[in-house]
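Sequence in, structure out. Go.
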Amino acid sequence: MILSIYTLIHVLIGLVGIFTGFVVLFAMLAGKRAEGWTAIFLSTTVATSLTGFFFPVHRFMASDAVGIVSLIVLGLAIYARYPCHLKGGWRKVYVIGAMMALYLNVFVGIVQAFEKIAPLTALAPTQTEAPFKMTQLVVLGIFVLLTIVAAIRFRDKSWSVP
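Output:
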C-alpha cells in the first residue's frame, strides 16, 4: 500500500516535470524566460530523479544510470541558470542541460508506457523490438532538433540580470 502511494507520488511529480518542461521548452523556442515555470520544472525534475532512487531494488539498474545522468545535467543547468545568470556560454549549458533532463524524463515515460499500456506492450514486450526502438529514436531526434533551435533562439541580450 505504501509503495503504491509512493509510486503514485513519484509518477505525478514526473508528469508535472514533463509538462512544465515543455512549457519551458516552448518559452525558450520563443526566446523568452519562464521564471516560475522554470523553477517548477527544475525542482520537480530533480525530485523525480531523487525519488526514483528510493524504490526497493537490490541491484544497479538502467533507471539508476538515467537518474544519475539526469541529476548531473540538472546540476549543471541549475548552476548555469541561477549562480551564473545565463551569462556567456552558460546560457547554452542551461538550455542543453535542461533539455537533456526533460528528454530523460520523456525517455523513461516511453519505457513505462511500453511496460504498462497493453497495446504498446503487445507491440514490444521486451522493448527490444522495432516499434520501441523507433519510438525512442524519433523522440531523440525531435529533442536534438528542438534543443538546437532553443539554444539558438534563447539568447536575448536585452534581459536584465538579477
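Check: Residues 158-162 have pLDDT under 50 and may be disordered. Residues 2-153 form one domain.
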